[in-house]
Amino acid sequence: MEIKYFESYEKMSEQAAEIVANEIKAKPTKNFVLGLPTGSTPLGMYANLIEKNKSGLLDFSKVTTFNLDEYYPIKHDNSQSYYKFMFDNLFGSININHENINIPDGEAVDAGSECESYEEKIKKSGGIDLMVIGIGPNGHIGFNEPDNFLLPDTHIAVLTEETKEANKRFFDSVEQVPDKALTMGMGSILKAKKILMLVSGKSKTEIFKKFLQGEISTSNPSSFLHLHNDVTVLSDVGI
Prior knowledge:
Elements: E1 2-5, H1 9-25, E2 32-36, H2 43-54, E3 63-67, E4 69-72, H3 82-89, E5 101-102, H4 111-124, E6 130-133, E7 155-158, H5 161-167, E8 180-183, H6 186-190, E9 194-199, H7 205-213, E10 231-235
Parallel strand pairs: 1-10, 2-3, 2-6, 3-5, 6-9, 9-10
Antiparallel strand pairs: 4-8, 7-8
Helix pairs in contact: 1-2
C-alpha cells in the first residue's frame, strides 16, 4: 500500500486525475474499466479529468465505467440521484460512449435482480482495472456500513440513521433520504486490479488514523483494503 499526503485538496485532486489518466493511457487499444464514486471528495478529480479530456490529453472513448452505488428507489432525474450527479460532474462533459456507462439502477422494479445483473456486468467486462473510492467518517466504502458482517457482492443496503442524517444536507429533509441503496460489496471492490482511495477533510481524521493502524474489522469496512495488493491512498488529512 502506498500512501501520499498533500498540502491541499487541489494538489490531491490533480494527482488523483493524473493517476487515473495514466492508467487509461496504459491500456489504449482495449476497453479500460474504471470504477467511480460520488460525493464531494472526487469532484476536484473529475474537474481535472474533464480538463484533460477537453485539451486532448485524455480519451474516454474506450473507457467503460461502473459506479459504486446509487440510492434506491430514486428517479434518474432526481436532483440527488447519483445518476444525475455523474452526468452533471463528469459524463456530460467528456467523450465517453454512454453505452459504456454503468450505474446501479435506482428505478429498477426488482432491486435484487438489478444487483445480480450489475455484478454479472462487471464480470463480463473483464473486471475493474482501477477502482476509485472515498471513505466515510465511520469507515464506510460505498454503502458498506460498519456491521457485524459485510456482504461481498453488489447488494441492497439499508441506510443507517447515522448515514441518513449525514446525507440529509443534500435533501430538503431527512425524511426524503431514501431508506435503501444499491451498492457494490466489499468483495466486488477488492476484485479490482488496482484501488485508488481519496481521503479528504477534517471529518475523516479519526477514521483515517484507525485505517492506518491496519487492524481489519467489519466495524471499519475501509480496513479490508489492507487485504488488497495494489492500493494507493491520497490524503489531504494531516495525521
